[in-house]
Amino acid sequence: MAVEDVKISDVIIKTFSEKLRGVLETDVAIVGGGPAGLCAAYYLAKQDYRVTLFERKLSVGGGMWGGGIMFNQIVVQKEGNKVLEEFGVRTVEVEPGYYAADSVETVTTLASTACKAGARIMNLFSVEDVLTRDEEVDGLVINWSAVEIAGLHVDPVSISAKFIVDATGHAAEIARIIERKVGPKLLTPTGRVIGERSMWADVAEMLTLENTKEIYPHVFVAGMACNAVFGGPRMGPIFGGMLLSGRKVAELIGNRLQRLTKS
Ligand code: 48H
Fold first, then answer.
1. Both ends of the chain: CA-CA distance in Å?
2. Rounded CA gap, 127 and 197, in Å?
3. Cα(184) to centroid(ligand 1), Å
4. 197 in ligand 1 pocket by Cβ < 6 Å?
């Protein structure tokens, strides 16, 4: 069958416009498509919530593709392995309690499973601000990453969300935006982003999970950003904490959304 060039363009423009209009109002907006964000997207979509994940880069996966020092293998502990099993990622227990997985298989499976569960992934979008109303956040301000990278003076657009997840990794970008624009009102001991500490995998993994929580009304933090926000150490190339944090934030927000529906 012959294909027409302009029809191809028309199909892309039509379907993408519909997709973009469909994300204007969402239950949960996740910023960052690393392992924590992808995991959160899957577990929320599985509960049938409207979930949109914004990722600045062309590809999701964040810091997982490169494993450790570009050896594309990742390590998870027993609890993290259970999450990978749920996604169907193949792992090998190399030492007792130390499971290895192929980083490419892991990223692609997390992303594919999240999409198939119904999460909408908008790559090439950067979140540059939040919408604040009456001392709470109820949306995001987004722009094309290409605009950001080129430094063009082009105004963004906004979307509304009942809950936001800062899964932006080491940078903790959403928490820092709130600190800068709203003031030192984060739900941390100082009201500010405390900053990440040096590597200590065991403690970091535990604290990542413990600090997966609400940091400003309607804004939660997940993954590596937890350590930046609450002053936890980094953990190097072990990824169980990221996966478990993504799952925990989905549970916390799921409970809140359930209460909203009942009230
Ligand atoms: C849109 C954005 C924005 C923005 C950032 O870094 P990530 O992989 O984050 P996590 O928390 O899922 O996983 C962390 C892990 O990869 C890691 O770095 C570890 C375990 N390090 C240990 C150590 O010791 O170093 O993904 C975050 C994603 C990235 O893809 C960014 O491009 C994206 O968020 N992002 N997207 N708008 N404003 N800011």
1. 55
2. 25
3. 23
4. no
Convert the pLDDT of each residue in 194-228 to its tens digit.
999 999 999 999 999 999 999 999 999 999 999 99
Report the alpha-carbon distance of residue 207 to residue 233 in Å, rounded.
8
| Antiparallel, parallel or unpaired: β 25-31 and 214-216 | unpaired
- Nearest CA residue ID for atom 5, ligand 1: 168
Q: Is 0.90 surpassed by the pTM of this model?
A: yes
Q: How far is it, in rounded angstroms, from Cα 51 to Cα 53? A: 7
Collapsing DSSP states into helix, strand and coil, what is residue 14? helix
CATH number of 23-65+104-262: 3.50.50.60
Q: Name the region of 70 (left: φ>0; alpha: ψ -120 to 50; beta: rest).
A: left
How far is it, in rounded angstroms, from Cα 131 to Cα 199? Answer: 34
